[in-house]
Amino acid sequence: MLGKKLVTAQKRGETRALCLGLGMVACSMMMYFFIGITIVPFYTNSVWTTETVCKVLKVNIKDKVLCPNSEGSDDEDIFPYPCLQVWVNLTALGQEVMLYQTEDTLERNPKCSYVPDKSENSKEVKARIETIASNFKKYHTFLCYYDPGGMQTNVILSRLYPPKGLLFAFLWPTLMFTGGCLIIVLVKISQYVSVLSAWQ
């Protein structure tokens, strides 16, 4: 009687462990799919892939503009803010080009180097933009990214999804997938050992 209870408990534990492993594998596959349709296209479509040194030429803060400056935008997304323009000398090509914070900044408003978040109030936005402008005037040389193919004549300060960020995004689903497979393998080994012991 006690042996039957132990066998039943063992089978329940193996079933739960197997379900856990299969669930982890399924969740990791869903995460792979989500990353593949969201982050990977942004990474592959970015043409600013080569890092170089940029030198600041001039920094201007113009009067308030509306954001974004793109067609099809909702009225809720339009808000005024001071327009920061940073012009740099691209040392790799020796050209005077405009600097943008990220790829998204260029899409949201190609007239400004920095686009603030609409959730911030006007005083915070003004103080932040003045701080950014003073930092650019203080640190004249820094690393930036440009398009080696020449399709984009401007440069960006940082990429939304650099290679390290893409690898980090794939790290967690990979660990979950590996853990799920390991649990399944251990359960199958346990079942095989149990059958072998019963046969002997």
Automatic annotation (TrEMBL):
<dbReference type="GO" id="GO:0015269">
    <property type="term" value="F:calcium-activated potassium channel activity"/>
</dbReference>
<keyword id="KW-1133">Transmembrane helix</keyword>
<feature type="transmembrane region" description="Helical">
    <location>
        <begin position="20"/>
        <end position="43"/>
    </location>
</feature>
<keyword id="KW-0406">Ion transport</keyword>
<keyword id="KW-0813">Transport</keyword>
<keyword id="KW-0407">Ion channel</keyword>
<keyword id="KW-0325">Glycoprotein</keyword>
<dbReference type="GO" id="GO:0005513">
    <property type="term" value="P:detection of calcium ion"/>
</dbReference>
<keyword id="KW-0472">Membrane</keyword>
<dbReference type="InterPro" id="IPR003930">
    <property type="entry name" value="K_chnl_Ca-activ_BK_bsu"/>
</dbReference>
<dbReference type="GO" id="GO:0015459">
    <property type="term" value="F:potassium channel regulator activity"/>
</dbReference>
<comment type="similarity">
    <text>Belongs to the KCNMB (TC 8.A.14.1) family. KCNMB1 subfamily.</text>
</comment>
<protein>
    <submittedName>
        <fullName>KCMB1 protein</fullName>
    </submittedName>
</protein>
<keyword id="KW-0812">Transmembrane</keyword>
<feature type="transmembrane region" description="Helical">
    <location>
        <begin position="166"/>
        <end position="187"/>
    </location>
</feature>
<dbReference type="Pfam" id="PF03185">
    <property type="entry name" value="CaKB"/>
</dbReference>
<dbReference type="GO" id="GO:0008076">
    <property type="term" value="C:voltage-gated potassium channel complex"/>
</dbReference>
